[in-house]
User: Fold these one by one.
Assistant:
Number 1:
Amino acid sequence: MAYSGMLPATVAGHYARHEMQVDIGRLARLAQVKRYRTRVTQIDAIARTITRADGTRQCYDLLALNIGAVPRSIAGDHHAHVVPAKPVTALWRGLSATERRLDATDRALEIAVIGGGTGGVELALALAYRWRHRRPAPRIALYHRGDALLGRGERAAAAVLADALFDAGIARHGGTTIARITPGTIASADGREFVADAVFVATGAAVLPGLGMRGLARDERGFIRVNTRLQGVDAPGVFAAGDIASLPVPRPKSGVYAVRAAPVLADNLERAATGRPLREFRAQRRALALIGLGTRRAVAARSWPLAPTGYAVWRLKQAIDKRFIARYHAGEIARIMHRSGV
Ligand SMILES: Cc1cc2nc3c(=O)[nH]c(=O)nc-3n(C[C@H](O)[C@H](O)[C@H](O)COP(=O)(O)OP(=O)(O)OC[C@H]3O[C@@H](n4cnc5c(N)ncnc54)[C@H](O)[C@@H]3O)c2cc1C
């Protein structure tokens, strides 16, 4: 499983792909958890069953959903030249296909990146850095709905990112809601058309299509509504955390909240199984985002009036990411389990 915090830097080439991977298989074996390598296609919270892609069903007493989110869909985004930022396997597949096309042509291909949030901007900058020596140089353009990058209240960091895009030669089309993708072009809601040989999509968060759910209250975007104990509001046997969960007080879809919720989720599963009172998850109001600029520089965003930027911020991000991923190396987990007598 990939750690998305290191994804843009891996796309840029600062890490090898294996460095951002967590070996779920080994961790499951260590924890003696039975692992199914399959997609869940249906969740029935009334019958208390899940259905796997091969049609087999499984009953549950307690269910924890941590299935994340994918970019919001745009009409026509099923075309072969469209590359979603998530799932990560789809991103790598699409990136390889795009690079095969770059190798096969002596024309400068037009690359569109859709989405002006952290994911889209970081991805565009990472692609520009990855392809910096390619000739002819691909022409990258970033399309985003509002006039400003990032969310409201991030003016300082948005200004740094706008400069970084300019320096990297990435054209920026603000106020451009892309409403349709066709082979070779993308079109905005107000009828403008742009050439796009490949389209990378990082358009916020949506529930993975093709997943049926029954008996689960969901918010207007389809995410599962949970209470402060991460429990489905009308399905006490179902817990959810991370991007798929819609918290009582909404929070951005960010790995920070997913990671912080995980220990509470694990604890509450045990408490629910043993009939003890559940713990509350108090999601912090704001999270620090360290956003890579493609090069070995990053900008820190936390709605501050100033946005610290540079190599030191990149080193901080690198240290945090490396420490995070190291915690999930099977050797480290085995050592912790051994020390705590598990
Ligand atoms: C380019 C990019 C960069 C990002 N960088 C950062 C960052 O630096 N910091 C940060 O905090 N956040 C970052 N994010 C956001 C972050 O990726 C998410 O908020 C975080 O991954 C959410 O964690 P999660 O566990 O909820 O879901 P995910 O990490 O998305 O994991 C979901 C898992 O569930 C599996 N799954 C999904 N559906 C099914 C199904 N039906 N059946 C079985 N399995 C299923 C998936 O295969 C996946 O393994 C970034 C996102 C993107 C796109």
Number 2:
Amino acid sequence: VSVNLVTRTQWGAIAPRHKDCLKSSAERVVIHHTAMRNCKSNTEHFDDIGYNFLVGQDGTVYEGRGWGVVGAHTKGHNADSLGIALMGNFDYDSPSSEALMSVKQLLKAGVSQGFLFPQFVLFGHRDLGNTKCPGAKLYAALPQLRSAK
Ligand SMILES: [Zn+2]
């Protein structure tokens, strides 16, 4: 499985100040959207990416914390899960088929490389917390991602 992955080094990320490794393969995947209200420069957030991966609407996958690392994306649920964020706000806009395809490929790659349990469970953030994340339209597309297994 090939994923068009932009590594931290490629996008100029600062090394994380703190990095905890997952104790085993992730059992759960939590899908988010970034829902940025204003398009200010991302640089100030680059040392504090809480998601394991981010996926652009063109299907490009950006490495956040990466595989096998505890993220900071879903309060109380980070220790055994992988957080993937689609870049954008999906309250009203639908995620692109390119972005969904990339997430599927990423999940398959995670399973084949042993970072994800083959029987992993996929959630939307709103399943686990009091939030609208990942937006109604993306949430409605989650069954397509579950079928990726
Ligand atoms: Zn979220």
Number 3:
Amino acid sequence: MNKAVFLDRDGVINEERKDYVKTIKEFQVFDDVPKAIKQLKKLGFIVIVITNQSAVNRGIITLETLNEIHMELQKILKENNTSIDKFYFCPHKPDENCQCRKPNPEMLIRAAQDYNIDMKKSVMIGDSLTDIQAAHKAGCKGILLEKNQTLLQIVNSMVDDLL
Ligand SMILES: [Mg+2]
Ligand SMILES: [Zn+2]
């Protein structure tokens, strides 16, 4: 079985915007993200993005643009010889009461099935309590990224724990 690191997107990989990331231009990836993802892969983790994107069903962004934004991230990562293995997103609004919007664990559970992931060896990193709640419901560890922390700092501390 595989082990994975699940990453929330907004606030972890890129700057969060209160008015949603609507264009590639608004998609501002934090500087040390490629390095962090590279490091995770080196440690043998599959790296999967798990993101709530209610902007889709709010009619703020099209699926096409959302995919373009994710391809832009892949482009940036490729320039650094790394990549995200898979993106899972929930397009629903909170009032749609879907099964996939975090804190529901559906996206994590689906990813675990698709990639034969051992949740006991896996971790979700997010900047919201809902990320951690989803992680716990899916049976993996949750690490909360604090406001003053970067993904690379968390990854580096994971490396220390594994040594
Ligand atoms: Mg977030
Ligand atoms: Zn959903």
Number 4:
Amino acid sequence: MIETDRYPLVQRLLHWLIVILVLGVLAIGMTLGFLGFDGVKETFGGAATNALYAYHKTFGVMILALMILRLGLRVSLGAPPYRPPLATSEHVASRVVHGLFYVALVAMPVIGWLATAAGGYPVQFFGWTLPGLIGKDQAQSETLFFVHGVVGWAILGLIVLHVAGALRHWLVKRDRVMARMSLFG
Ligand code: HEM
């Protein structure tokens, strides 16, 4: 049970590290999704295209590992109490958005991993190639990449809701909710 009204430093560090990684992976993913392989290659050249795919996969797998660690800490340590307590509507809204974040940020890399493997492409993690876990199946790969795209938009929607909520607490209500996850102050 956490005694203060802030998350322990390790959980705050994990939160902001995952923010940076998710924004980077989303930006690269959207670029790959909008332009497609040929469009990316035409725009950025062959070497940069390979690097963008490799970075997307590597940082995506890192998000999966960090999210599993984060989920373990959240379950074992719990969350600090809100002081003063949130209104019921705020409590429900934040629980739903935070819950969906956990599900989406674990599911998204797993779907990307399986889609990549089913397409016959390497699951790159820095200089290594991780096991594909499933066999090659073009139709399955296309379905999984479609779901990967849809969940990407859902994550973007969650980010908008989450940031709007945080800004409301920070700038309008001026309570201590932002301090719970802040690295400063
Ligand atoms: C939280 C982690 C991840 C996020 C937020 C994310 C996000 C995205 C997004 C938004 C797209 C564009 C989809 C579209 O519009 O069609 C994309 C494409 C892609 N993702 Fe991910 N991704 C993640 C993890 C992964 C992982 C772990 C892998 C593989 C190991 C992966 C492989 C790919 C590939 C190969 C594409 C390009 C698909 C294409 O060329 O059509 N992703 N990703």
